[in-house]
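Morning, I've got a small favour to ask if you have a moment. I'm working through a protein record and want to make sense of it properly. The fold is given in discrete form, as structure tokens running alongside the sequence. Can you walk me through what the tokens say about the fold? Thanks so much in advance, here it is:
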Amino acid sequence: MTIRLIACDLDGTLAHRSGYISPESIQALQRARAAGILVVLATGRMPGLIGPFLDQLGFTDEPIIAAQGALVAYRDGRVVRRLTLNAALAADAGRIAAAAGAGMAYYSDDRIFIDRLVFPADDYENWFGDLAVVHPEIAASLPPALIKFMAIHPDPEAVPGLMAAWQQHFDGQADITRSWDNFVEGTAPGADKGAALAWLCRRLGIAQEETLAIGDGGNDVTMLRWAGRSAAPASGDPAALAVAKWMAPPIEEHPVAATLERVLGW
């Protein structure tokens, strides 16, 4: 069946951690768009933080799956799907994270509140841009509805234990996923990339079999599982590789371009 929509993860799949997107990947996505295929970025980042990536790709009016799927939005600020968590859940997450030695980031619609820095300040600038506000006592005065919360642990070896503690504590009240070596995130139930992709495709009249998903992380698993075709870079998380229908080359070898060449028959 013809592919009509490509859902592509950003960090670790399309973009290197430095933010670099290879010319090969840009050209492949431009070729897909020229062929009439809708390309949707599916990212854990907030929409306001991906402008430089959209500029590199030349994207203007494509929908964006953001905040792990809690938001489906457009570059002009329109939000067409928004799922939130209440502040009490987020405060509970913060207490568990602090006991495990992690810092927290709490995401509202237009701010990311940081309770303490566990990495150099420059790293936070790279991750959160000018949306970040450091507020050591923020857990006591969180906005009533949050897009997501995230623990940032300086030791990646401690992350699985923290993730398990959150999963046990919340047990269906929040979706918990590991988005990067040092990050564990919580979103509202159903606020994952796969559910957001399914919702968007229903809205656009695109069949499941007409979709291709590409992603490298544990937070991409639901998207890779739902899409009709899927690929994960060889450099990706084992959980993503386990569900992807094809293993693409690692991030250093342009996995997005390789996947499009294979699936679209270029």
